[in-house]
């Protein structure tokens, strides 16, 4: 399984978070949107089972790559 590196926005040392292909797809989907995406929209766009999407979103939040805002998710660096 290949891993990709996603820079964590809150890490000034440039440390990165190793992501699986699925995690990278979810991260790119959320960060590629101009506005926050609802869970159901993320799930529809990536095509994964809801449990998988939920786990990935939680991990990405925990490590600072994305954040939950209102009823959606957005890139942590988005304002």
Radius of gyration: 12 Å
Helix content: 40-55%
CATH class: Mainly Alpha
CATH topology term: Arc Repressor Mutant, subunit A
The number of helices is 3
CATH superfamily: Winged helix-like DNA-binding domain superfamily/Winged helix DNA-binding domain
Strand arrangement, major sheet: 3-5-4
Spans where pLDDT lies below 50 across 5 or more residues: 1-5
CATH architecture: Orthogonal Bundle
- Intertermini distance: 33 Å
Characterization of the model:
The chain has one domain (4-75): Winged helix-like DNA-binding domain superfamily/Winged helix DNA-binding domain (Arc Repressor Mutant, subunit A, Orthogonal Bundle), CATH 1.10.10.10. Mean pLDDT is 82; it is low at 1-5. α1 (21-31) crosses α3. Helices cover 41% and strands 23% of the residues. It has helices spanning 21-31, 39-46, 50-62; strands at residues 4-7, 16-19, 37-38, 66-69, 72-75. A three-stranded antiparallel beta sheet has the order 3-5-4. Strands 1-2 form a two-stranded antiparallel ribbon. With 79 residues, it is an alpha+beta fold.
